[in-house]
Amino acid sequence: MVEIEPRALAELTTLRAGARPRRMVEARTRDELVSHLRDLWNDGERVLVVGGGSNLLVGDEPFDGTVVLVRTEGLEVLPSERPGMLRVKAEAGHDWDDLVAFTVRSGLQGIEAMSGIPGTAGASPVQNIGAYGQELVQTLVEVELLDQDTHEVAVVPAAELELGFRTSVLKAHYGDVARRDAVVLSITLELAQVGDAEIPVAGAQLRQSLGLPADAMASLAWIRDTVLATRARKGMVLDPTDPDTFSAGSFFQNAIVSAAFARTLPPECPRWPVSVDLDPITVIPLDRYDGIVPPPAVQEPDVKVSAAWLIEHSGLRKGFSLPRSRAGLSTKHALALTNRGGASAGELAQLARFIRGRVQSEFGLVLQPEPVLVGVEL
Predict the structure, then answer these.
(1) How many beta carbons lie within 10 A of that of residue 273, not counting itself?
(2) Is 250 a catalytic residue?
(3) Is 76 considered catalytic here?
(4) How far is 369 from 158, CA to CA, in rounded Å?
(5) How do residues 143-153 score in pLDDT, each as one tens digit?
């Protein structure tokens, strides 16, 4: 294992914060990645795996361990057993948006609305990335994992990852640890072959975001271009000349709340129902069965509410910053915390704590951070 000169994590993360770690190695092939991780784990070394660095807030104190930079690349088109479908396998370090662009050029439908999301393919299942109504769970078939406990490589079906709203068994939630200690080596998606023709635009949230009617037709290329333009207007596409893009994207998750709680919020707060199991299975023990099957209980779906709206209507407008702080809300999107130039992780965390406190005070709801926090407390 060959070490490289450690670089400050401020140079390797989109939030541009983080000190120089004690050690750093780089993996450019899958075999190198597996070998590096096995060696480090065998040595009992503390490890931080970094791909695109777009979902990390790293502290101002040096990381006391080894940072592993994942630089593996490669795409492979594979057959599918389902008619009209193809699979695409991506190495963990492959740029996510390059993967999306490839699928659109190939006429493969399923991830075009996630255009412009920064980061790597390997990071995508960790928090089940999503945008405009599309989520990775809708197309992910399987992942290759290197298990930290066994040091073995396994192909794991997507169903075993328990993908939920910005979460999975692989994600170390704020204040909690991952339920499965493993590193993603590759992901495999299953996508529909639709070509370059105009097709119905599925998903009410996507149509609403793009200003389309219910019967709208569009090509994959048009959807990608429009999503990229929409994200750029919000400062959500990386641009080295625009400090509004020096962020981790949405810093707080849109909140999932009960329908009853959602009714306590102002009616103008944007919200979307979360799908529920429409065909629940009722199990009745034989010794209790009297010939009558009770009707299923009516389940009111949970509701996803806009964290950006809650932030702005707690009195914190776009561009807000605390006095003498170099961290601030994006001038384009209230959900993005940005580094306005030289901000420390401490300044970003201070702003995040202030925002959470205001939203909780105004609406009784505690926003949860979306990025992985390393050496940072909110």
Answers:
(1) 13
(2) yes
(3) no
(4) 24
(5) 999 999 999 99
